[in-house]
Structures are given as structure tokens and as C-alpha cells.
Amino acid sequence: MTQASTAMSAIKDYILSHHLRPGDPLPTESKLCADLGVSRSSVREAVRTLVALDIVEVRHGQGMFVGQVSMRPMVESLVFRGLLAPGDDYASLRDVVDVRMTLDSALADDVVKAWKGRPDPVLDGYIDDMEELAAEGKTFSEQDQAFHARLLEPLANHLWAHLIDAFWAVHTLTVPLMDAPAAEDIITTAKAHREMLEAARRGDVEAYREATHKHYAPLVLALSSPRPPRP
Amino acid sequence: MTQASTAMSAIKDYILSHHLRPGDPLPTESKLCADLGVSRSSVREAVRTLVALDIVEVRHGQGMFVGQVSMRPMVESLVFRGLLAPGDDYASLRDVVDVRMTLDSALADDVVKAWKGRPDPVLDGYIDDMEELAAEGKTFSEQDQAFHARLLEPLANHLWAHLIDAFWAVHTLTVPLMDAPAAEDIITTAKAHREMLEAARRGDVEAYREATHKHYAPLVLALSSPRPPRP
């Protein structure tokens, strides 16, 4: 084990044994060197790795803090993995969409249970915005992501929201590599969000699943066409 | 943008524009400094972050290579996130098991389709080993992971195998924090693997789902009991 990996384990142990939470301050670099008995360069190397994993956050002029331990590292890896995929087709992006579709379908029961008969002006607002943008031929990835995140918010298991969000991010970062979607596809996708929410509010799991499926249809179709050559 | 993040993007772009694959060699540190016009310390910092994300691999005395871009960073984050979870109960581990159960259930159709009527001495071997170890009161996480990995191997979408494997790893790394499982639970779990495979071979999706569910039962029960205090 190198000095840097010893330092990394020691910093993680420090966070756990002191019951620290995301955002809590960590000791200074000098204090860590002294406490752990390792060199300053090893502590620096360890901190850089922990920052990459979102376990530590460095705020300039303020010091080090416990990070958000988000899914961001996974998203970066997945996006890169997608871009690395062999061949110049959309295979890896199709895999991501396939995972999203299956997760949405697997969570249909819970989502419908959570939203049955439940009004929510925020969700309605996202859909209104999407339809408005779609009518102008504009895309709406921000509202789209916010919609899906809010839809999963009531679920007791927050890992789902993180997972879906991570796959959503992969998707958003790789979609710009494709041709721009057609105007009618943007409108279909916006409308499908409303159908999803309405089905959930009626408590109709099957209709919710169908609307979810429909909401991916233009994307699935675009991904089955050949990929344009890389610039 | 700092010099290090410029260097990081440049290295990623280099990998993509040269169509490199995992395991392919990268230019030396000096060549990267010269080509990208950034300092050696920035390149080093960038490389450390990329190593943490498993995008670059450093082999001592051999140089730098494109990494495996695995789910390892996600696993590290998830394990740590689980340990950080508020309260001294098993809530975060229950969430992980919940995700595994839902994914297994969502993939039941595809798994059964892949294995219907298909003999496989390797899978049978894993189960024999599990049952043998269980009879001696020993656990079998290695064979367990190998079993699940092989079960998903025939699926066209390899992201599933990576996801399930990542959640499996989270699980294995956090389970040692719990009390040792009872001997009869180990035997039940080993047997349930055989039932899963037999159901898949018969082409019986419902029986496969039931066996999968049963295979998690001892764990779900253990996770619903109060957590022992941290050492």
C-alpha cells in the first residue's frame, strides 16, 4: 500500500469515526499530515483522489469539507465509457436508454402509488414549460430532468432517484452527439410527460407504463438510425 | 477552468480522437506536457483524477494506459455513502438490497429467455460449491458473485451486468458490518440459487422471480433487526 492510499483510508476513517456528514469541515492539510504520520505530498495525492470521488470538497480559502458523495463520478465514467464504445453507432447510448426504460417500468407501481390523486403545481409547471418550448421547436432537458427527479422524490428509497438521475445525465451529455431531434418528436415527448403524470394521478399503472414507453419512442427511433461520422 | 481541468479534458479528448480502447498505451507525461502546453504538475493532477475515475491506469515502469472505465468509482462512492448514512440502522444497506431485488425482477424475462433449456457446467459448479460451503457453515460470496455475473452474461446490454455487479460489491463490502448469518440462512441462500437456475432452465419466469425473492429473504430479515453499535 502506498503512502497516498494509507492517507486516503485514514481520511475516510476519520470522516466515519467522527460521524461527519456532507458539508462538515475537515482538519487542515498540516494537521492531517501530523495526525496520520504521512508526507504532505501523500495527503495531497489522497485528497485529489477523494475529490475526484466526491468524498472530499476543497473550497478555496476555506479549507476541506466532506463532499456530497454524489453519483457524479459514476456519471463521468459512464459518459466516457459510452464515448469509448467500439464502432461508430449508438449501441452504448441505446444501452443507457434501455436501462432507463427498464428502471422506469420497474418503478411504475411505486410511482403511481405515490402520485395517485395528488396535485402538484410544480410538476404541472414543468410540463407546461416543456410544451411551450416544444411548440417553439426548442428542447427542454432542464425541465425534463427536474420532472423525473420530482416524480421519484416521494419514493422512500433515494438510491433510485440517484440512479435514474445518473443515467439521465449520461444521456443528456451524449445526446448532443446526435442529430437535432425533429420538431414533431420534441412535441410528442413533451406531451408524453403529461400523459405519464395523468396516468399516475388516475392510479392507472398500465397507462403510466405505456406513456413512459411512448415518451422514449422518438429517442429509440433516432438511436436506431446510423450515427453520423465524428467531427 | 484550472490548468489541471484543462489537462484532464485534453487527455480525454486525446483518447477519443485517437479511438483508443481500454489497455491502449498513452503518451508519456513529458509528451503530454509539451502537446497540451500545460505544466507537469497540472498533468500529474489530471492523471490522478483520471486514475481515480478508472479512465487512466498507471503501470509502474511501463507508463500510462487507457483504464477499464469500470463501475469501481461508483462502488467506492456508494459504499462510503452507505457508511455515512444517518442513524445507526441498516437503512442504506436495505436500499441497496431493494435496488438489487428490483433489478433482478425487472430482468427476469430476459434471464429466463437466455437460459431456457441451456446446460452450463460452470453455473452448476458454482451452486455445488455454494451448497458444499453452506453445509460446513461457511459463507460463499465469491461463488455468489460469479453466479450472478454469469447469469447476466448472455444479456445483450452489458450495462446491466455492470450495474448488478456494482450493487453486489456495495453489498459485499458492507455486509461484514453486520452479525454473521445463521447456519440455516446460509443453507437457504445456497439452495435458492439452484432454484433460480432450475426455474430459468424450465422457462418459468414466475418461479424464477419467486426463487430470486426467496434468495434475498434471510438478508432482508437480518437487515430489519437493529444494528449492533459500531466498534
UniProtKB/TrEMBL annotation, chains A, B:
GO terms for MF: DNA binding; DNA-binding transcription factor activity
InterPro entries: GntR_C (IPR011711), TF_FadR/GntR_C (IPR008920), Tscrpt_reg_HTH_GntR (IPR000524), WH-like_DNA-bd_sf (IPR036388), WH_DNA-bd_sf (IPR036390)
Keyword annotations from UniProtKB, A to Z: DNA-binding, Transcription, Transcription regulation
Protein name: FadR family transcriptional regulator
Domain of life: Bacteria
Domain HTH gntR-type: 1-69
A Pfam family reported for this protein in Swiss-Prot or TrEMBL: GntR
